């Protein structure tokens, strides 16, 4: 009976060690997959940031190029007043 109890205890300890080993392996596998996913996500984030920076620079250079033309158009529209009767206006007598 003592031998049987000792063997059961030993089997339980061995099973616990196997479970712990399996858990460590799975945890390590998870960590490597997570690192791979986060690494690609980090690259993606850098690419998005770089693309955004290029777009902002493009908008700023476009704004600098077209600034005078747009200001001239706006001032022309505001300052060139031509009073006219609207085509939909009906004179009722």
Query: How large is the count of helical segments?
Result: 1
Could you list the spans in which at least 5 consecutive residues all have pLDDT below 50?
none
Oligomer: single chain
The largest sheet is:
none
User: Care to count the β-strands?
Assistant: 0
Beta content comes to: under 5%
SSE order, as H and E? H
Which geometry do the CA atoms define?
rod-shaped
> What average pLDDT do the residues reach?
88
Produce a short descriptive summary:
Keywords: Hydrogen ion transport, Ion transport, Membrane, Transport. The protein has 93 residues and is mainly α.
Record the SSE blueprint.
Blueprint: H1 2-79
Structural description of this entry:
The chain is mostly helical and 93 residues long. Helix content is 84%, strand content 0%. It contains 1 helix and no strands. The model has no long low-confidence stretch (mean pLDDT 88).
